[in-house]
Design a protein that fits this description.
single chain; 361 residues; five-stranded mixed β-sheet
């Protein structure tokens, strides 16, 4: 088989194009999520929720958060699963991976003990759903054992476990609280049931289409894996050890770059090892660090310019003051006048989208 030999420039451009961060911008919200495969849901909103930042960085100020709510809760062209928003067509594979591979043995044992609790929830949802978790009685046989924040949060733990296995679904939200219902009332009626092998193939192929270039496997960490198994075709990248998998659709494509401000949870930078190897970009989310230990800021936004990650924006949305407060712009490489102007223009666009005025550095 042919092994593609890529320069770092080529590898970076493939990654940027796959993530719809090149020019021109896309225009269709559902199409963007289809390509990205996931929008991570995170409650942190130092500037804006991550899912909204990811969509703004692709669609620009034409995107409004209400558009995403409509797509999920009214049109059902997108669906919310535990921690992510996805295309409905990816749900069967996500369910099959949990159902057939069972990544959490201790949780499986707890679910077996609490089978009557599961049946109670399903019967209640069938009769009265959709319901908030606070409207569901705790009839657990055995509480969920944890020393952390999930300790004795039996209803939430059961609902999330059932959602991951396809027994319930998230139908909407009331603020940060989720409405739960039966999946047949939320998901399209024609979704297939996949076996584990088909699910893994589907997920690897979809993930590679979203990333463009990725490793076969590697160190595991919480959340969605950045690895793609044997999807795509083999590649090596000049100056980077090991082999990669590349999506052939992106090979040889013309590239036109632009400037973008990214969420810390953006898939272009989510795999910090890949970001260092391909982009020479060092990043750590510092919101959990003491203030005096932070290098870049509480919720610093990575800065993309063309096919390079060139810095971080330390900013905060002060909605009471009507201001997007720019604390610092950290330059990983010295900005040219053109780069500086492009970054400032993106900051201005971000502030305008938020309905705020830029203040600070």
């Amino acid at each position: 088989m042919v092994v593609h030999r890529l320069s770092k420039d080529e590898a970076r451009r493939i990654a940027v194009q796959a993530q719809l961060l090149d020019a021109p911008r896309p225009t269709d919200l559902v199409g963007v999520v289809e390509r990205l495969t996931i929008l991570q849901i995170d409650p942190t909103a130092a500037i804006a929720p991550s899912a909204d930042l990811v969509l703004w960085s692709r669609l620009g100020s034409a995107y409004q958060p209400a558009d995403l709510v409509k797509a999920v809760e009214a049109d059902r062209t997108l669906v919310e699963t535990v921690a992510y928003i996805r295309s409905p067509r990816d749900v069967p594979a996500v369910i099959a991976e949990v159902r057939d591979a069972e990544p959490y043995p201790s949780l499986a044992a707890w679910l077996e003990t609490n089978e009557p609790f599961r049946r109670d929830i399903l019967a209640l949802l069938e009769e009265k759903g959709p319901l908030l978790s606070r409207d569901i009685p705790d009839t657990s046989v055995e509480p969920w054992p944890s020393s952390g924040w999930t300790n004795n949060r039996n209803i939430t733990k059961m609902l999330e476990a059932l959602a991951l296995r396809g027994h319930v679904a998230i139908s909407g939200r009331k603020g940060r609280q989720r409405y739960w219902d039966l999946p047949e009332r939320v998901y399209p009626p024609d979704l297939p049931t996949l076996d584990l092998d088909a699910a893994i193939r589907h997920r690897n192929e979809r993930r590679l289409a979203a990333l463009g270039i990725a490793r076969t496997s590697g160190l595991q960490f919480p959340g969605e894996t950045p690895y793609v198994g044997d999807a795509g075709e083999e590649a090596v990248v000049e100056g980077v050890p090991g082999t990669w998998r590349v999506h052939p659709a992106y090979l040889g494509m013309p590239f036109s770059g632009r400037t973008a401000l990214l969420s810390p949870f953006d898939r272009l930078v989510h795999d910090r090892v890949r970001a260092e190897q391909l982009f020479c970009f060092e990043y750590l989310l510092e919101m959990y660090k003491p203030k005096d230990k932070r290098r870049w800021g509480y919720f610093a936004l990575p800065v993309l310019h063309g096919d390079r990650l060139v810095g971080k924006l330390d900013a905060t949305a002060d909605r009471n003051a009507g201001a997007l407060v720019v604390n610092a712009i950290h330059e990983d490489i010295r900005f040219t006048k053109g780069m500086a102007a492009a970054v400032r223009a993106e900051i201005d666009d971000l502030a305008a989208w938020l309905g705020l005025e830029v203040t600070g550095a």
